[in-house]
């Protein structure tokens, strides 16, 4: 197991920091666990029925429910997906590819990035196997990302397999640039796709070409409208950049008037490959002020305990708005997300530059599911309390966003 840990530890930057991950394997070894097929029901609560005329039965059921709830809490506390700060990670993002059919300025350099050889990427079988392991440990939401996941020919099959083999999964979603939605969304819905995020930074076709270095704005809008017609409430992700699209803030608000969409403004974030400039970032507070100057009744909505987006709406509008404040008001304390890159590395923090190769472990002869759990536990336990802060992040080496899965 020690050799396995040594062989699969990776860092995105500086090489000498990998020694921090040379952890004693015994510290993270877990009790023997059943195989995935047997463990699949481990977190499903058992339902019981009672009637008002059966107080004794009701008391027994209440006691059983409390016991079951405590049992679930104990499982989460001891789970390899619980970090040293008590955060239980129930949301997994899996990147399916490093390739993309756009060249967005904040995502990758104009000259592109060095892609991994094809045999270094996870196969569909490896994606499904890893997903099953994480679901058995408590993951309830999976989002498939890229690169651009719709350029992967087996996307629909992967969605179908995830849904068919993991009945505990509450949601399988994708994050896409939307260019291929009109061709693929019906098939994805039939495969069981639950949720949809579309990246769109401008409502003007000319600006779209400027930021993506490609054409296709009208196809993206058609894909969003198709998603609404099929019953989705698509999330539209917009990275705000001062001097580029911050004059469209209220235009995006108007998009929610007749369309049932959730527009989320994302603060510009530093990654290797984009030129970080604090003057380029439009803060959540500044955006909120700009909206309320035109829509005084703009009101907050309730948020879930692990939501990264602060939700708002204009009363009477069909859709809603949200703000992802990674830079100015981080949400690290409630983070429940883990990421697997297309080449099979586990990133426990979007902004962290230390990674662990699950792919190498999977492909190591004799690697067991307990070995994988041990490896995952070691990585999760090393997750920091919060990221390094806006100014420090801008000076840290990290993958370009396209190689992380954004």
TrEMBL record:
E.C. numbers: 4.1.99.22, 4.6.1.17
Pathway: Cofactor biosynthesis; molybdopterin biosynthesis
Biased composition (Polar residues): 45-62
One Pfam family here: Mob_synth_C
PROSITE patterns: MOAA_NIFB_PQQE, RADICAL_SAM
Record-annotated Radical SAM core domain positions: 84-306
Keywords for the protein's UniProt record, in alphabetical order: 4Fe-4S, GTP-binding, Iron, Iron-sulfur, Lyase, Metal-binding, Molybdenum cofactor biosynthesis, Nucleotide-binding, S-adenosyl-L-methionine
GO MF terms, alphabetically ordered: 4 iron, 4 sulfur cluster binding; cyclic pyranopterin monophosphate synthase activity; GTP 3',8'-cyclase activity; GTP binding; metal ion binding
UniProt keyword annotation of 4Fe-4S present: yes
Name of the protein in its database record: Molybdenum cofactor biosynthesis protein 1
The organism of origin for this protein: Anopheles dirus
């Amino acid at each position: 197991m020690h050799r396995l840990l040594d062989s699969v530890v990776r860092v995105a930057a500086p090489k000498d920091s990998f020694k921090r991950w040379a952890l004693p394997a015994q510290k993270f070894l877990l009790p023997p666990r059943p195989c995935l097929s047997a463990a699949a029901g481990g977190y499903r609560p058992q339902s019981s029925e009672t009637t008002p005329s059966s107080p004794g039965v009701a008391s027994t059921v209440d006691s059983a429910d409390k016991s079951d709830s405590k049992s679930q809490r104990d499982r989460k506390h001891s789970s390899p997906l619980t970090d040293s700060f008590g955060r239980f990670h129930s949301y997994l993002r899996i990147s399916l590819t490093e390739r993309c059919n756009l060249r967005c300025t904040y995502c990758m350099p104009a000259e592109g990035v060095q892609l991994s050889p094809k045999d270094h990427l996870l196969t569909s079988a490896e994606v499904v196997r890893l997903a099953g392991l994480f679901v058995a440990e408590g993951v309830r939401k999976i989002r498939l990302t890229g690169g651009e996941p719709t350029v992967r020919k087996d996307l629909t099959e992967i969605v179908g397999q995830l849904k068919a083999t993991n009945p505990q999964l509450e949601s399988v979603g994708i994050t896409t640039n939307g260019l291929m939605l009109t061709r693929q969304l019906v098939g994805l819905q039939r495969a069981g796709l639950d949720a949809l995020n579309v990246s769109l930074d401008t409502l003007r076709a000319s600006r779209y070409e400027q930021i993506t270095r490609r054409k296709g704005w009208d196809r993206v809008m058609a894909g969003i409208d198709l998603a609404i017609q099929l019953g989705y409430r698509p999330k539209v992700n917009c990275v705000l950049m001062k001097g580029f699209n911050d004059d469209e803030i209220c235009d995006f608000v108007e998009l929610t008037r007749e369309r049932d969409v959730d527009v989320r403004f994302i603060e510009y974030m530093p990654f290797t490959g984009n030129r970080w400039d604090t003057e380029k970032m439009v803060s959540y507070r500044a955006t909120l002020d700009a909206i309320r100057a035109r829509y005084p009744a703009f009101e907050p909505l309730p948020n879930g305990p692990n939501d990264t987006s602060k939700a708002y709406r204009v009363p009477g509008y069909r859709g809603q708005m949200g703000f992802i404040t990674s830079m100015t008001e981080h949400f690290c304390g409630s983070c429940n997300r883990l990421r697997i890159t297309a080449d099979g590395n586990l990133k426990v923090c979007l902004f962290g530059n230390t990674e662990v190769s699950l792919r190498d472990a999977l492909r190591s002869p004799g690697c067991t599911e307990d070995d994988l759990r041990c490896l995952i536990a070691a990585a999760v336990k090393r997750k920091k309390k919060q990221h390094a802060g806006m100014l420090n992040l801008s000076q840290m080496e990290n993958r370009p966003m396209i190689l992380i899965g954004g």
